[in-house]
Every structure is written in structure tokens, then in C-alpha cells.
Amino acid sequence: MRELKKVAVLTSGGDAPGMNACIRAVTRSAIFNHMEVVGVYRGYEGLINEEFQKFTSSSVSNTIQRGGTILKTARSKAFMTPEGRKTAHDNMVKNGIDALIVIGGNGSLTGAQLFAREYDIPVIGLPGTIDNDLYGTDTTIGYDTALNTIVECVDKIRDTANSHDRIFFVEVMGRDAGFLAQNSAIASGAEAAIIPEDKTDVDQLAEFIGRGVRKSKNSSIVLVSEAQKDGHGGAMYYADRVRKEYPQYDVRVTILGHLQRGGIPTAADRILASRLGYASIEALMEGQRNIMVGVSNDEIVYVPIQRAIKWDKPIKKELIDVLAVLSL
Ligand code: F6P
User: Fold this and answer.
1) Among 11, 195, 260, 319, which is most exposed with the fewest C-beta within 10 angstroms?
2) Is 128 in the pocket of ligand 1 (CB under 6 A)?
3) Does 173 contact ligand 1 (Cβ within 6 A)?
4) Phi and psi, residue 218, nearest 5°
5) 165-210 pLDDT per residue, tens
6) Alpha carbon of 129 to those of 50, 173, 180, 251: distances in Å?
7) What are the backbone dihedrals phi and psi of residue 74, each rounded to the nearest 5 degrees, phi first?
8) pTM surpassing 0.90?
9) Which atom of ligand 1 is nearest to the CA of 180?
């Protein structure tokens, strides 16, 4: 096995609270194991443009509690081309970098997978996204913080929804996954969630209305995943439908947007990020490559990146049942 002397770390795609805790863990674990660390700025763009900085232990001091990413991030179109990846590889070789650690979501790990197939450089992915949509890990860095942010917002919306006897459609992020919508609905005591994983979205709205919305309650909150299905979706779409089909209801929409990505990471996210960052260096030293490090049943697991990015992480039917029963 090749001796690893210098590892690069980058964050890519949408930022997620806890990314800094993860950069810190990667940096300090690598240094502990006598490796040099290079921080790469702006994700894959930084690999292509050689935005490299030597990281020491103090480069990551006082960062564990900070949201966003000190390495900055980007969604790189250039890295999706063979030419872009070749430039990135050339820059890594030129700078003596032996391995790459990518903290990011589905798109970022797809890039990592392409790169790892083309070049003989070990690549380790770490799940960093509020969407929680990577297969093989129970949760992703940033998901818990985003969930808590949403719940805090919905608690506030509940006050005004109650006071006015209104139905609120609250749209949350998640890209094509409904984890944030489903679990924030359970945690905030919402009346329903509309998510891409459950039936057709039209059925979900009809079911919610059919259950007798507001018969026994004077307000309702529906968490809506931003995911589009059959060319439509989102909170505006459902609100418009209710206004047309059930004009007796007073409907409002709140789109939480990017505030879900910011903020101080929760303890759970900091611990997860620290464990995963530490484990990424252990994995490299064991000779692992082209894997994502995740956590399953509280154990560190290695998942082939190819498997992790398949967009097929299921939402447990139990969660759908819990919400349906408890919101009656
Ligand atoms: O993947 C994280 C995420 O926040 C998704 O939930 C959302 O769909 C997307 O990124 C938004 O991306 P951007 O910040 O580029 O608008």
C-alpha cells in the first residue's frame, strides 16, 4: 500500500451545518497520523484553480461551532467535464497530494465517483448535506441542525396559524427527498407532510383534506417537500389547489428557503461530523478508496460511493404511519 503523506480536503455543493466540525476532524486526525493537510477552497473549483492552503491544527481552531464552511463551497460545472477533472488531477500531482476527502451531498459524491474511476488517487466521501439523501448512512452532516431549524420555525408559524384559523403550507428543502418534510412534520406536530416518496402527491393532498382537515382543529400545518413530481409541486402549488377546490379554507404559504442551511450546528451534527472526519483518515490508512464513510446503527460503515449516490434511500413506512396517526 502506498504511504500517504499529504491529503486534501474540500467541501462541495450546498453548505451544511457541521461541515466545519468535519474539516476540523479530518485535519486533526491526519496531522495526528503524521500526514500533511491541504485545504481546498470552493470545492472542485478550487482543485481546478489550485486554491490550496496548507492546514495546521490551528487553521481549524474555534470552528466546531460555526455554520457554513470555512473552505467555502461551489457547484462546479467544470469538474463534470473530463478536461476539468484532468486539470484537477494534474494540480494534485503537482502539489504532491496523495488522497482526497470530499465532504458533500449527492452531486458532490457523484463527482468524486467519476474522479476516482479515472485516476489512481484514493477518494473518500463524507456525507455532508441537509437533505439526508445518501444511501447507507442513517443520517448526514447538517440534517439534524436543519431539522431543528425547521421545527423552531414551524412552532412560530403555529402561533399565527392558530390565531387566524388558517391552513399553512410550509415548504422545506430536501431536493428530491422528503426526510426533512416528514420528520419535521412529526416533530412539530403538523397535520400532514407531502413528500415525493409517499404515493402520488395529488393523493396526499386529497387524503389530508379528506381526513377532515379542521373539523376538530381550528388550524392546520402541512409540511411540503420542495421536490417536484410530474412537473409540479411545492407549497404554492398545493395552496393554489386548495384555494380553488376548497375556497372555504383560509390558506397561507411559507417557504423557509436557505435559512434551513445556516446556523450553529447541533451537538448531534458536531459529533457525527467529528466521528466521520476521524473515520475518513482511518479508512485511508486501511487502504480504503472510492467509498463514503457513514454511520449505521451507531457504527461507522463504508459504503461504495457508487451505491451511496443512487437516490434510493427509503423513508420508513413507520414514519408515515406515525404522522398519520398522531395528527388525527
Ligand atoms: O442540497 C442541499 C440543498 O439545500 C437542497 O435542499 C436544495 O434543493 C438545494 O441545495 C438548493 O441549492 P442552492 O443553494 O444552489 O439554491
Assistant:
1) 319
2) no
3) yes
4) -100, 0
5) 999 999 999 999 999 999 999 999 999 999 999 876 677 777 777 7
6) 24, 11, 11, 31
7) -160, 160
8) yes
9) 6
